[in-house]
Structures are given as C-alpha cells and as structure tokens.
Design goal:
Elements: H1 2-13, H2 37-47, E1 59-63, H3 69-86, E2 91-97, H4 104-114, H5 126-140, E3 143-149, H6 152-158, H7 161-172, E4 177-184, H8 195-201, E5 204-208, H9 213-227, H10 237-247, H11 252-268, H12 276-296, H13 300-312, E6 318-319, H14 320-334, H15 341-354, E7 357-363, E8 369-375, H16 379-387, H17 393-398
Parallel strand pairs: 1-4, 1-5, 2-3, 3-4
Antiparallel strand pairs: 6-8, 7-8
The chain binds a DNA duplex (22 and 22 nucleotides) through helix 15, strand 7 and strand 8.
Length: about 400
Amino acid sequence: MSDIVNGVFERFLESKIFVNRELLRPEYIPDELPHREEQISRLASALAPILRGERGSNVFIYGLTGTGKTVVTKFVVKKLHSKAMDLKLRFGYSYVNCRQSDTPYRVFADLAESIGVKVPFTGLSTAEVFRRFIRGLKENYTSFLVVLDEVDYIVKKYGDDVLYRIVRIGEMLPSIKVSIIGITNDVNLIETLDSRIRSSLGEVEIVFPPYNAEQLKDILKKRAEKAFNAGVLSEGVIELCAALAAREHGDARRALDLLRIAGEIAEREGSSKVTTEHVYRAREEIERDRVKELVYTMPLHAKLVLLSIYATSSKGYTTTGEVYGEYVKLCKAVKVEQVTRRRVSDIINELDALGIIESKVVSRGRYGKTKVVKPLIKSEIVLQTLKNDIRIGKIVESIRI
DNA sequence: CGTCCACAGGAATGACGGGCGG
DNA sequence: CCGCCCGTCATTCCTGTGGACG
C-alpha cells in the first residue's frame, strides 16, 4: 500500500530530467567501480583473513581526492561485513573521517560511538574515551576493523600517537584481532611516521592513481544511464564534465558533482535537456556555494585578514607584510582589537588550506623572506559574502579592488 | 662572501566556555 | 556544585633562512 503512495509521490516529484539523482551523489556506493578492479582485489585479499578469524593486514591507501579511495574502501568493507555476518563472526568495523574528527579525542569518540558506547562531546580525558572504546570492543567483538579516512589530518597535528594506540590494541588484547586501514592523499605521509608504526601499518600499500578523462567518461556514463532519463543529456555533456574534472587531477567526485548540478540547473529552469552550457554554469555554482559556506562560517579575524588580502592584491598577489598593514587599518576602522602578526600568519595558512588563497614563501634576498599570497576566488563572490557580516559590512562597501 | 632583511613557523603558555564525574 | 579536562583562539618569545646587496 505505502509503496503505491510512495510511487505516486516519487513520480510526481521526479522531473523529466532525473530518474534518480542520488546515484550521482558522492556518498553513493555503486555496485560497479570501473577502473578500480585491481585496487578492489588487493584490498579484499588484504582483509580476507578476517573471514577465517585471523587478523587482516593493515593497509595504507594513497591517492588524490576523488580517485575512489573512500568509495572503494566502503564498498569492500561493506561486502566483507555482510560476508562475516553470514559466517556469524563477531566482526565489526568503524569508519572515521579524520578531517571531520580532527583530534585524538574525537577519533576515539567516533570509534566508541560506532560500537554503541556513548561518550560526551567533551569533558572526558582522551585516555578515558579510549578505555571506554576498548571495554566496548572486548564485550562485543573478536575482530574489528578501523578505517581512518584522511588520516593525514590527525598525523600532521598530533603525530602518530593515535595510530600507535590503535595498533597496540591487538597486542594488549590478544583475544581481539584489530586491523587498520589508513587513507590519505598525502603520498609522503608514511615517511613522517615512526618506524614501528610504519612497518606495522604499511603491511599492504595500495595506490589510487588519478582517473584520466577517458576513465571519468566511463564512470559518468555508467551512472548517468540510471540517473537520468533517456535522451536528456545533450551531446558532449558527459565529455565536458569528464574533461573539466580531468583537469582537476582526475577528480571523479568533481565530475559527478558537475553532472548532477548541471542536471539540477536544467531542471530548475524547466529545460528538457541538459546542455554543455548547464555544465559551465554548474561549475560556477559549485565554486560559489563552496566559498560562501566557507567564508560565512569564518571567525571575525579570519574575515578581516581575507578582506585585507583582497584589498591589497590589485597586482594579482600580495605579501604578509602588506596584508598585516591593511588588516591593522581595518581593525581600527571597525574598532576591534588586532591580533598579532604571528596569528595573522597562521590565519593566512588556514585560508590556504581551505583553498581560498594560494601562498608560498619566497626569498627576496636583501629585502627579506616573505610569503606571497594570491587570491584564488573571484573577488565579487568573496566580498559579497563578507558584506553579509554586519560587523564588517560597512567597510567592505568602501573597499575598491 | 658575509650580512641582514622580513618574515616563517616552532614551543610554551594562557584565557575561556563547555561539559563531564563524583 | 567543584575540580578537572577538553578544544579553540590567541599571545609571547624564539630560532631559522634564501639570496640581493654592499
């Protein structure tokens, strides 16, 4: 009965463009992952011992964003889990994204949550959260798999302590077989690790090379077949998405986003076809949304620094010294206290990490060593968003680039 | 060929609000 | 309610450095 109702709703809601747009979302795990056969089989064989009640190999996975690391891992782990359930094994796994949970505390909190152990956001010591996780593990599992995605975020800030403790669980509790999958887009990461961790963690290493335009096209085609109604994609749409994403180091997520947003734009304006024009507009929209979200949630001083960067880069770039000078002026203008040069230098690095600006240290010999900062985003988008902050809206108006 | 600029960026420390266990 | 620990933002003090200038 409810199927009939849902069917009606869905048919009503679905447009002429999409059959199922969910298939184009980055978190969707398809049944088929073209051009990743080798990685899948290597990962599967590293983990296969788990099914015999032995410990799986620890795996290190490298690859740039959008090369399928996460989706392949989730795909394999999901299969592994259901197989283990068929075999009635007491096997569990946990997936932690270390960019979202970027402190040891939050990593352990996530691990604990994933096995049903409730822990507060804050208030406990990290060691206590870890203990609770271990206790939960002991009670419910004989084998466990920890997936740490974007693990470089933890390692760079806090060293290999987290990894070390997880690796050690197995030694402390021989009754539980614990294995780790570490996923990173930083190829050099493993060299920064302690040699003990390195050898135990890198038992198996799998590299995910970027997709080329041809492979991206395959991926998009497979998904598009089911996601779109027949014939709505104009000639060249898939090729364009593939080409644009290939330019960005073969990022499949980007390619899928472009295709989906292009479809949504076409739908919004009631067009019956998705054209290459829609793809170009999708590219702009993605960029704009990302920046808006980022800038909107930034702390006041980060906004002021960002504004200073734009105000001083009429030549296309600027330097730390110039930025700081401008920043001090702006602070006076809006009557807030300035932070130190040191802090501004960190804020510039943070903006760099967010991809809003690009910076690199250069030496100008006699004239010192500084950081050259280049804004990457169109100034209108950034200024527009900054203007929405009532504290600084007024001075944004007064700045001409 | 040494100096010295204009910073980079590490280390230690602190203030602060949130949130726990007891 | 207290004492403790957390993450975040910030300060202070500091050592390090590539290369044009003299």
